[in-house]
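Chapter summary example.
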Amino acid sequence: MTSETLAYLTLGGLAIALLVSIYTDIRYRLIYNKITLSIAIAAPLFWFATDGFSLPQIGLHLFTAIIIFACFTIAFHFGAMGGGDVKLFTALALWFHWIEVIRLVLYASLIGGLVTLIFLIMHTLKQQDGRARIPYGVAISLSGLWIIGERIFNHFA
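The structure predicted for these 157 residues follows.
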């Protein structure tokens, strides 16, 4: 198996995990730890397949993930997002170059605004009591899928 094949297989596995996260977050408002942990554990395999397995590259991936974790833990502390969302963002940050992680956060913010609007409208139309529960994992996962799509389409461009 070539490293390119391994890279595409791991990206495919990541895409499947993100689709599962979308489903579970919409259905149960929960992102399973086993999915997030699988995403995080598979990242070094992807690094190996894409020549990102040098010590400086590994350090950069880990540093980027730590920064993402720290920033979104603050959001979690103030109730702006759930713990599963923080863990999913952190696990995804392990996969991508820091510039792609910045785009990941940007895309998740834009998509998150749209997801929030949709779920607020649904909450209002159903005349439900209490505060609307917004599945931000959907936006995070969709932005991850977007980054994967960019990698694949840019490779063939």
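To summarize the output: Residues 3-156 form one domain.
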